[in-house]
Write a structure and sequence with these properties.
heterodimer, A: 463 residues, mainly alpha, MetI-like fold, three-stranded antiparallel β-sheet, 17 helices, 3 strands, B: alpha/beta, D-Maltodextrin-Binding Protein, domain 2, 2 domains, six-stranded mixed β-sheet, globular
Amino acid sequence: MRSILSGWFKVREDLPPGRRTLLTVLSFLIPIGLWCFVSYTPWIWHPEIKLQISAEREGVTTVYVAGDRLSREFFPEFVAAVRAENDTIRAARDSGSVADTSARSARRRNLKILRQLAPVGLAHGWMTRDSSTDDAAIYRLWRDLATGARVATRPALTAENLEIVRDNWAILERHSPTFAYGQLPTEPLLKLVPQGVPANPVYLPAPHEVLAAGWHDFTHQPEDGSPSMGDRVATSIRIIFLGFVISCAVGVPLGILCGTFDTFSRLFEPFIDFFRYLPAPTFSTLLVAIFLAHDAPKIALVFVGTFFQMVLVVAKTTRLLDRSLLEAAQTLGARPRQLISRVVVPGILPDLYNDLRILLGWAWTWLVIAELIGVKTGLTEFIETQGRFRNFDRVFPVIILIGIIGFTTDQILAWLRGVFFPWTGHGGPASRAVARGLVWLPSTIIESARDRAEAMHNRASSP
Amino acid sequence: MPLTKVRTLRSLIGFLLIIVSVFSIPLSASAAPLKIAYSDWPGWIAWEIGIRKGWFQEAGVDVEFLWFDYVPSMDAYVSGNVDAVCMTNGDALVTGATGKPSVGILINDFSNGNDMVVAAPTIRTMADLKGRKVGLEMGFVPHLLFLTGLEKAGLSEADVEIVNTPTNETPQVLASGAVSAIAAWQPNSGQALKALNGSHPIFTSADAPGIIYDLLYVSAESLEKRRADWLKVVEVWYRIVDFIRDDANLDEALAILASRVKVSPQEYEPFLKGTYILSLKEALERWKPGSGLGSVYGSTEYVDAFNLKYGVYSESQPAAKYLDPSLTEEVAKMRGM
């Protein structure tokens, strides 16, 4: 017992591997556990009512649909309004007066009442998302619920609603046993009274809702012709990649020059230092004006966001190179050009690699802003539109996806560092083995090529 | 060894350049379709039906519809990135006076309630807004609607504090409690109504019908060069109108329209009533010059006077310069009307 508890807090000392793994797993499990706890304990928080069955009110343009959330204070008002409408209909029936609406709008109204049950069918798996507007299937659902052939359990219909179902079905059956739009009654049907369950605010959906929404979005081709999630990922990665590569192509050489020669440093760095404080998003409209509305301004924004930092960071890394290496090379007679290509660049490569890894993380931050300028695209467009319509259960999977892409890329790059630069000692046994394997083939080829070149050179120089 | 390192570096750079060029191929556009910027107003979302059904290809006209937020869509037009933009008649004047003029060739609809001032539950009338904060996009159509409502309630702009808010963010701003009311159009106004339970419209475009017309505005240059193509666009529009106005297509049309703005068809259905999409015959009536709000000319003159009064711009904009009914009339003639 003592051994389990002791040894967790040793100043500046690594924990044993088993404990480290355990803590790594816990660091993910604790937030997820908290999230589940808040979501699935009904008496904690839950200030709103999530609608399972909704109803439209007459003369009000706001239509609440199943899945919408109402405040606990407003929900009773909403229910009362629908009940009042039903009472009016019942009163009219009792007094025998006929509603004077046209047959067309009366049928449309009744059709909408029929569709009130669609979410119930969907929740039980009796209908799929695609067939949820299949009126014939909905019609059968009314029949089955009224006759008791099917019983709704999640959500269970309230006694009040079950009675309304039977009441309406009695009228529907009289007109037609199966669905036909022209056969719908024109006398007003009763509306189902809204039902709901306590829920957390829309910005904190429960884990299973996020999983379900994510699964649907990632596996279904959207029917409205908008790009699939795979296409969105590709678009986003393309923009970030291009912006970053262009930024590297200019920024890295410039940074190395600034770090090596004081002339370049004085000439460029003060301005760049100034420019990096200008927030990149402020250039967005300017970039759209220059590069038109497609991907180019987005790539340019990623460039603006990363380039200036990059020059400064690379210059600093270059300056940190051990001076004695340069001095040794100079003693051996190296010229400035040789110093750069044979000492500076090889010397800073491992650190440069790390800098770029961190800057790539920055680039992801800019991506989110870049994708919103001009014509919105990619993952951010999805986050933005879904967020605007408060479908946060669909937003979270995408945010998490970005996190996963960033995290895994970084992990892979960190691992590759051991492969590329085995002498820095950051690699494990696996990366060292890969590094040896990678080096073996090219070095053999280069060696043999050099031998051949030397042989030819010797032959040419000897008369 | 150092020599090989230089070589590897060179080949690495070469490799990167190849990658860059491969990725950038799709960036360069080749053909020149008519570029039309559209945004989330129900009258313009209707274009989606023609796009999805491939009616533009059938009509033999190459168009590219670009989806924007409303104000950025006008920015795109001013900067010359698109040939045409969907605007209200009032905003066309603002865009023309401050950026780039345009010619309206097609009236999509007039706003019949979908533009609204949405107030928090405690505010019952426009007059209650005295001394309160209101969130809206300044200088554009919600501003016009709001000031019209204020005037009708006997107040002036000085009586309220206006907070400049992008229209698509008005729902969150109203829900946050930072303002007492917002002005926006559907679907944003509907989102605002849902975001704050108990909030309600206190003034809508149905209270001032004809103050907001929604048109397709084309740059004069493009209209001159490619008039035949624009005529085809107008033809396709009236095909769309016929489709929407046929009740048999209601569910199909709703599914297309609702998916464009990612709401459910049930939620979208009430929008149809608040945006009166004009049939060809009705549009011809509205194209007749006149001084009342029943004519697009009269409405434009009204808005011009209004904009001058509130200093949106300083020089009067002649309505006739911004309007060209000839394409609509030609389509009517082709249909034997």
